[in-house]
Every structure is written in structure tokens, then in C-alpha cells.
Design brief:
The structure holds 2 protein chains of 2 kinds.
Chain A (H helix, E strand, L loop, with lengths): L3 H10 L10 E5 L5 H6 L3 E4 L9 H7 L5 H12 L7 E5 L3 H16 L7 E5 L7 H22 L5 H26 L5 H9 L4 H13 L8 E7 L6 H8 L2 E6 L17 H10 L9 H14 L4 E7 L4 H14 L5 E7 L13
Parallel strand pairs in A: 1-2, 1-3, 3-4, 5-6, 5-7, 7-8
Chain B lengths: L6 H22 L5 E3 L6 H6 L3 E3 H10 L3 H10 L8 H10 L17 E5 L5 H9 L5 E5 L11 H4 L4 H5 L1 H22 L5 H27 L7 H12 L5 H20 L9 E6 L8 H10 L1 E6 H8 L8 H9 L2 H6 L3 H12 L4 E6 L7 H9 L4 E5 L11 H15 L2
Classes of the chains: A alpha/beta, B alpha/beta.
Chain lengths: 354, 415
């Protein structure tokens, strides 16, 4: 009998293709409001890249100046590695995601033979202003209409409310997972697994509850907090943990940031504000917000070291680092940055000395 | 540096030096000063009488003086990256006090407000750093995107911009600009007059119309009457002063001078063998680059985006001045960098100018080149992709020039 952790790992390591009778909607970026997809009766499947994949095809269309994680996603899309994807929803949680949208839009126009699915951009913006809120409200209203057309399901207020509650419940469970990790009852790799498993939200919640209630080993290691680029795969965490660390927290959107903000109220208006103000991610938040958040989160996690891992062509994190380092120093937490890293790997030769 | 053929280019260069001296004096006297990104609505500042410097213009001056490496070093010393968004970050380095011998024209005066849109991942961070400095406010504008757009933006933009840009983006930018006006009124004591803005917008449209005439004239004239090294200062210095009478008149003088050259049969290269198009930002640290191909191969760069976008990218007519202004900038970046708008426009321009080949400068950033190159090649136009940054000399491989010449010989001149 597989443990809850093993079952979640199965849904994480074999994320694609999914088995689902209804509409499967591929989602790029954490700014896609998955609640609305769930409310429409479709399955949102967040698309991750695959380290080690030859990304020549993705690079052909997106160029050499784009984060390899996005090159990998486009390459996998073109190769059909995700299995059946009936539609695509892309957000612009970072520049690479936006460029991916433009590439897919143009490829559908110019090369329909590639068979890329119908695609819609969810243009969630993040400046902390009411003017932005009104813009995002309009974009969510458009998305509701698109989903109704795609699925033939009317997105009533009760349906939206029910989906918001299910996804907020998952965020609460993810927060509990984060607390378990801080107690070293989960590793960073295991936490990523719990966050990133591709499974319908209700089933995901059931597995997370079982995991929280299960007997878990206690791990040991140097407590490391990860900032910088996001991690849609466990490879870098695995390298860090194999070198004697435990990743006790992070501030990217395949980890703790997924649960940083609840919707809190089962309405479309609350959903809009949740997505506008969620974060702070490296690509979309200000330097000062990032520094304050990283320091607070690292302290809460009891981190002994903060590692800023930055992939090539991920432009935002290096700008954040000086302020993050200064903010962490005020709490006596050292920070180190590894720039120009390849997707899925970290050059540990110069890491973690001392 | 390449010798300037046009009096309008010489006059523009003289004017900007004089203007910059006055700007430094005004800033030293404690008045407000804005640093404004190239694709942001500078017209608000013009209408309110608040002096401004364009971020990328200053970077081009620094790069042209070969001072960019030192500026990038200043960023690195403070822990900031020197390898991303260099064109946008060089002015920030000017804030960090380069020695007088390492900064042009006495240095960039310290602004009190910085206005920029949140394009890209690193771009916004650069302006965050500006905003963290004492006495400087960063006013951020959103950079919004649209799902579907009509391809022929250059036909729609002058009058039918609502259709081209889309209502959602326009509503957003109008509300941001209304708030900007209130902010500037409150913090500077300057008055915003809608009549003044209308006058500024009229002048900008008149300037754009002169640029359109000049662009069309150059497009249909063989051999080319002037080099891009002349057209760039003649169009871009007035561009950064647009909305002023001087800028409108400078655009007119530029046209008249080109027209006179055409009438007299003057050519930048008597033995013109090929007409080339330069896609991308100006190679500020080596403007002689463009002229070397005339001398060696009779290949003339007849096109750069600067005159072409001045002709097609700026004209906006409408009754509501703030919305009309928003229509100029709510999708400006897309005109140059987002397919299908960018790719189809480059093809339209290549055909209009009857170019024989395209050199596409591609830097190591997210904007990409595939769809533009594909569209041009599909139209039967050879493309050479030159991989380099336009201000960071470290990125330029000197072997690239030889390779470009080989391409020119084999793909363009032998056709």
C-alpha cells in the first residue's frame, strides 16, 4: 500500500499525461486563476518543463534570451509530451510566459499544422493600484466568457464560490505542509512534490490531508531557504539536499508562494484581488517587497543560509539580490547568489563552503 | 565618427547640447526634472513645462562616447547585474557618480521623478532602484497585453487606434495618466492645461507627418540620398523634443533638406549596389559600422526603425487628448517587438524601401527574432542575424563583421 507521500510523488513525477474525462486545460504560470477552470468543470494542468530535454525547437521560436524553463515548456508542447491538452491558458507571470503566449499565438496563425490548441492569455497585472484591479476585473470577466464557450458550462456564482473554497482549502493544506517542512518532517523535494502534484483539487486535498496525518521521518541538515528563479522540478533541491542541506522554504511560485495569499471570500471580486496581489514573485514584485518578504520568510523558516539560484536569462532575481542580502543581514542570515545557472542544475562547486 | 552630411543633423546635435546645458542649470536650481523611458508618454511633461531626459537617449550618448563599460562596472560594484537590460540601466549607473572623465556633458542631472512602464522582468527593477534613491519617485505604468489584435496596425493607428489597441488597455492607461497628472500637479506645483496638451499633441502629429513624408521620399529614391547615420540624429533628437515648436520645425527642415538632395540627385553612395535594412536598436558605440559597407561593397543602409517608427508609430488623432495620448503608448512596444505587429510591419517597410537584404541586430534578451526573420525570408528577402547588444561592447564579436560581409557577397550582391 503506497503512502500518501508516495502517491503524491506519483502524481508529481508522472504529471503528464493526465487521465481525465472532461476538458483538459494546460496552464502556464501561477497567474492563471485555476478556480475558474475548476468551476467550469475542466481540469487545470500546470505545465512544467523537463530538465535535460533538448530545447532546440523551443529556442528556435523563442530565441536565445529566454529562460530555459520556458524553452522546455514550448518544446514539450510541440512534441506532444503533455498528452491531451484541449486548450491552453497562459498568464504573463514573467516575460518568458508572455513571449511563450506570443509564440503560440503566432504559430497557430502561421503553422496550423502543428496542432497547437486554442490559446487564451490571462493578463493579470500586479502594480498595487486600484486602476490595475479594474483592468484585471475586466480580464477575468473575459476569461469567464471564454471558459463558458470552451466548456459549454455557465459559470454561476455558486460554481465559482465552490471552486474558490476548494482551492483555498488546498492553500491552507499547503501552508500546513510548509509548517511540517519547517519542523524537518518533510524535505524540500517532498514539499515540492506536495505542491506540484497534478491531480484534481478535491483529490489533491484528500491526499494532502492524509500526508499531514501520516507518520513522517525527521530529517537533518543545514536549513536553507531558496530564492531567485522558480523550480518546476526537484533537481536543484535534490542537489542541495544531497549535499547536506534541507530546503526549509522558498519564495517562488512552485512552492510556498502558491499559498501566500488566500482568496478569503467566495466571490469573483475577491479572486481578482487575490491574483493581482499574490506574490511577491521575483518577476513581478518590487525589489523592496521582495527583500522584505524573503527576510521575513527566511526568519520564519529558521533558515541558516539563503541561496539565490538564478538561471541564465532569468533577469529579475539578480536585481533583487543586493536588497535581499542587506535585509537578511539584519537578521544575521547569510545569503549567497549563484548566477548563470543551467535549468535543473546548480553548480555546487563554489557553494556552501563555510 | 562618420561625418554628418546633413545640416539638420548638425543643427540637431548643436541644439541638444545647448538644451542639455539649460537642463542642468534648471535642475541645479532645484526645479523638478523627470527621467522618462523611451516608450512612455513624455507629452504630459511637455504640456506641464516639466523638463525631462529620455532614459535610452542618455544611454546612447554614453555609449557613443565609449563610456558604457565604465557605467556597467559601476552597476556591478553595487551588486547589480551588468549583463541584462544594459540599454535601460546605463542611466542608472550615471546616478552612481562616475568620475567626470567617464561621463559625457558634465553628467546626468539627478531627476526628481522617473516614469517607466513595467516591461520585462528586469526593466521594472532598474526603476525600483531609481525609486529607492533619496528624492526620487518612481511612477510605474503597467504594460498590458491583448489576446487578439488586427495585423495592420500602421493603417489603423492614426485614427482607428481604439480598434488597434483595444479598449481595456486604453482605459487602463487613461486612468494611470489621470493619476499621473494629479501627482505632478500636487508635487511640482505646475499646472496641467488640457489646451496645452492639445497643442502638444497637434505638434507631435505635425512632426510625425513630416517624418512620414521624409520616410516615403527616401523609400522611393534610388540611389539613397542619405545614410542612416544622418537620418538617425535628424529624426531622433527632435523625437525626444517632440511636442515643441523646435522639434516640429526640425522635422520639416529635415524633410526639406532630404527633398533638396533628391532633387539635385545627391547620393550617399554613387555606386549603390544594394539597399539594406537595419532592424534593431542603433549600434551606438560604432556608428561608422553602417558606412563601412557603402565604401567596401556599395551596400547602403537605407532603413532604420527610427525614421520609420517616427512615421508610422506616433500619429494619433482624436477628440479626447488623454485617451489619444494613451493610444500612442499603450501598445508602443508591440509595434516593434511583438508578432504579428512587428514582423508584418518590417515586411511592409522592407517592400516599401525595396531593400535587397536585412541585417537584424539581436541581443541576448527575450524579444526574439524568429517571426520577423521568417516573415522577411518568406517575402524573399535575405536576413543576416547579427548577435550583439547595442550598447555593451563586450557582446560584439569582431568576426561578426567579416561574416556579415560574406553574407552580403553571397546572399545579397550575387542575386
Amino acid at each position: 500500500m503506497a503512502t500518501p507521500l508516495e502517491r503524491l510523488a506519483g502524481h508529481y513525477e508522472h504529471r503528464y499525461p493526465v487521465s481525465w474525462d472532461g476538458l483538459v486545460i494546460g496552464c502556464v504560470g501561477q497567474d492563471v486563476p485555476v478556480e475558474l477552470v475548476t468551476a467550469a468543470g475542466a481540469l487545470p494542468v500546470r505545465l512544467a518543463g523537463r530538465p535535460g530535454l533538448d530545447v532546440t525547437e523551443g529556442e528556435t521560436y523563442l530565441g536565445r534570451g529566454v529562460d530555459a524553463a520556458s524553452l522546455s515548456v514550448l518544446t514539450r508542447l510541440l512534441a506532444g509530451e503533455y498528452g491531451r491538452l484541449d486548450r491552453l491558458l497562459l498568464s504573463r507571470d514573467c516575460e518568458a510566459s508572455l513571449r511563450l503566449f506570443y509564440a503560440v499565438r503566432e504559430l497557430r496563425r502561421l503553422e496550423p499544422g502543428l496542432g497547437l490548441p486554442e490559446t487564451h492569455l490571462v493578463d493579470v497585472l500586479h502594480l498595487p493600484h486600484w486602476t490595475t484591479t479594474r483592468y484585471v476585473e475586466r480580464r477575468f470577466a473575459e476569461l469567464v466568457a471564454v471558459l463558458e464557450r470552451w466548456t459549454g458550462t455557465r459559470l454561476t456564482e455558486p460554481k465559482i464560490a465552490s471552486a474558490i473554497m476548494a482551492h483555498d482549502a488546498r492553500r491552507e493544506l499547503w501552508r500546513a505542509i510548509s509548517l511540517l517542512r519547517r519542523d524537518l518532517r518533510l524535505t524540500g523535494v517532498q514539499a515540492l512534490t506536495a505542491f506540484g502534484a497534478v491531480v484534481p483539487v478535491v483529490e489533491h486535498n484528500r491526499l494532502l490531508r492524509q500526508l499531514i496525518q501520516s507518520d513522517l521521518d525527521v530529517h537533518t541538515g543545514r536549513r536553507v531557504f531558496v530564492t531567485g528563479s522558480s523550480h518546476d522540478n526537484p533537481d536543484v533541491y535534490r542537489s542541495l539536499e544531497e549535499s547536506g542541506c534541507v530546503v526549509v522554504g522558498e519564495d517562488h511560485d512552485w512552492g510556498d508562494l502558491l499559498a501566500a495569499r488566500l482568496v478569503g471570500e467566495p466571490t469573483l471580486a475577491a479572486l481578482v484581488e487575490r491574483y493581482q496581489y499574490n506574490g511577491p514573485t521575483a518577476a513581478r514584485a518590487s525589489i523592496s517587497d521582495r527583500a522584505a518578504h524573503t527576510a521575513r520568510a527566511a526568519v520564519e523558516c529558521g533558515a541558516e543560509l539563503v541561496v539565490s539560484y538564478v538561471r541564465r536569462h532569468d533577469d529579475a532575481p539578480p536585481w533583487d539580490f543586493p536588497a535581499q542580502k542587506e535585509a537578511l543581514a539584519r537578521h544575521g542570515i547569510p545569503a549567497v547568489m549563484f548566477e548563470h545557472q543551467e535549468y535543473g542544475s546548480i553548480d555546487l562547486a563554489e557553494v556552501l563552503v563555510g | 565618427m562618420a561625418e554628418k552630411l546633413l545640416a539638420s543633423a548638425t543643427e540637431a546635435t548643436r541644439y541638444q547640447r545647448e538644451w542639455f546645458r539649460g537642463l542642468r542649470e534648471a535642475a541645479a536650481a532645484g526645479g523638478p526634472l523627470a527621467l522618462v523611458n523611451a516608450d512612455a508618454p513624455q507629452e504630459i511633461f511637455r504640456a506641464m513645462g516639466i523638463p525631462y531626459v529620455v532614459n535610452q537617449w542618455w544611454a546612447s550618448v554614453v555609449a557613443a562616447k565609449r563610456m558604457a563599460p565604465h557605467h556597467l562596472e559601476l552597476l556591478r560594484e553595487r551588486g547589480y547585474p551588468d549583463h541584462t537590460e544594459q540599454y535601460s540601466s546605463i542611466s542608472l549607473a550615471s546616478l552612481f557618480g562616475p568620475e567626470p572623465q567617464h561621463t559625457p556633458w558634465g553628467g546626468l542631472p539627478r531627476p526628481t521623478i522617473v516614469l517607466a512602464e513595467t516591461v520585462g522582468d528586469g526593466g521594472r527593477k532598474i526603476f525600483d532602484v531609481w525609486g529607492s534613491q533619496p528624492g526620487i519617485t518612481y511612477y510605474a505604468l503597467e504594460s498590458a497585453a491583448e489576446n487578439t489584435v488586427p495585423v495592420n496596425w500602421w493603417e489603423l493607428m492614426p485614427h482607428d487606434w481604439e480598434k488597434a489597441v483595444g479598449t481595456a488597455r486604453l482605459d487602463l492607461m487613461v486612468s494611470e495618466l489621470e493619476n499621473l497628472v494629479r501627482y505632478l500637479e500636487t508635487t511640482t506645483g505646475q499646472v496641467f492645461s488640457e489646451r496645452a496638451l492639445r497643442r502638444v499633441l497637434d505638434l507631435v502629429n505635425e512632426q510625425a507627418e513630416w517624418n512620414r513624408r521624409t520616410r516615403d521620399l527616401i523609400a522611393r529614391t534610388t540611389p539613397s540620398p542619405l545614410a542612416v547615420t544622418d537620418s538617425i540624429p535628424s529624426v531622433m533628437i527632435p523625437q525626444w523634443h517632440r511636442g515643441s515648436v523646435w522639434a516640429r520645425d526640425a522635422a520639416q527642415r529635415f524633410y526639406e533638406e532630404v527633398e533638396a538632395r533628391v532633387r539635385s540627385g545627391a547620393a550617399v553612395c554613387e555606386d549603390e549596389r544594394a539597399r539594406l535594412m537595419w532592424i534593431g536598436r542603433g549600434l551606438w558605440y560604432d556608428m561608422d559600422f553602417y558606412r563601412r559597407f557603402e565604401q567596401r561593397h556599395g551596400a547602403v543602409f537605407v532603413w532604420s526603425m527610427y525614421l520609420a517608427i517616427a512615421a508610422d508609430g506616433y500619429p494619433r488623432y482624436g477628440d479626447d487628448p488623454l485617451r489619444t495620448l494613451a493610444a500612442r503608448f499603450a501598445a508602443f512596444h508591440d509595434q516593434l517587438y511583438t508578432p504579428p505587429w512587428s514582423s508584418e510591419w518590417y515586411v511592409k517597410e522592407a517592400k516599401l524601401h525595396r531593400v535587397d537584404g536585412v541585417v537584424h541586430l539581436v541581443s541576448d534578451d527575450a524579444r526574439g527574432s524568429y517571426f520577423t526573420n521568417r516573415a522577411l525570408r518568406a517575402a524573399g528577402i535575405p536576413v543576416y542575424e547579427l548577435r550583439a547588444d547595442n550598447v555593451d561592447t563586450r557582446s560584439f564579436q569582431h568576426s561578426a563583421e567579416r561574416a556579415l560581409e560574406d553574407w552580403l557577397e553571397q546572399e545579397v550582391l550575387r542575386r
